[in-house]
Amino acid sequence: MKILVVDDEKVLVKGIKFNLENEGYEVMTAYDGAAAVELEKKENFDLIVMDVMMPEMNGLEATRAIRAFEHCPPESGIPIIAMTANVFADDVKACLEAGMNSHVGKPLDMQVLAAEICRQMRRHTALLE
Questions:
Q1: Per-residue DSSP letters for the chain?
Q2: Is residue 120 a contact partner of residue 81, using CB atoms and an 8 Å limit?
Q3: Is the pTM of this model over 0.90?
Q4: Contact 47/3 with Cβ under 8 angstroms?
Q5: Whether 36 contacts 30, CB under 8 Å
Q6: How confident is the model over 98-113, as pLDDT tens digits?
Q7: Which tens digits make up the pLDDT trace of 5-46?
Q8: d(Cα 69, Cα 89) in Å, to the nearest integer?
Q9: How far apart are CA 103 and CA 116, in angstroms?
Q10: Backbone φ/ψ region at 56: left (φ over 0), alpha (ψ -120 to 50), beta
Q11: Which among 49, 39, 34 is positioned nearest to 3, based on CA atoms?
Q12: Which of 78, 31, 19, 87 lies closest to 59, judged by CA?
């Protein structure tokens, strides 16, 4: 399974990549939303983990751009998990309205992220069957 991890905090991205690769995932990285959109156009990712607050293009804008060229609703498109320190109801609502499928809070717990990746992939696979 190929995952794209997107965050402007390079140390955090490196740690997530290391942990996910140890779980057997193939991981590519980007450090802003614009780069994520370009990578998604070129690659065939199974899931994206994306920070919300980033330079160039934030995670909400990047998600909207990805959903626009997928030409399908969020529930049948590539699963996108938001990573955000803002876990208030309005922030979570904004993530979901942008087309993200779920969110995990920062500071990040790798066990929670890994569980959410598994949950989203099970859900996505079931929708495609």
A1: -EEEEE-S-HHHHHHHHHHHHHTT-EEEEESSHHHHHHHHHHS--SEEEEESS-SSS-HHHHHHHHHHHHTS-TTTS--EEEEES--SHHHHHHHHHHT--EEEESS--HHHHHHHHHHHHHHHHHHH-
A2: yes
A3: yes
A4: yes
A5: yes
A6: 999 999 999 999 999 9
A7: 999 999 999 999 999 999 999 999 999 999 999 999 999 899
A8: 28
A9: 8
A10: left
A11: 49
A12: 31
Strand 47-51's sheet: what is its strand order? 26-30, 2-6, 47-51, 80-84, 102-105
Identity at 77, one-letter amino acid code: G
What is the amino acid identity at position 128?
L
First-residue to last-residue Cα distance in the chain: 17
- Here the tokens at position 30 are 């980007």
62 token code pair = 């990047």
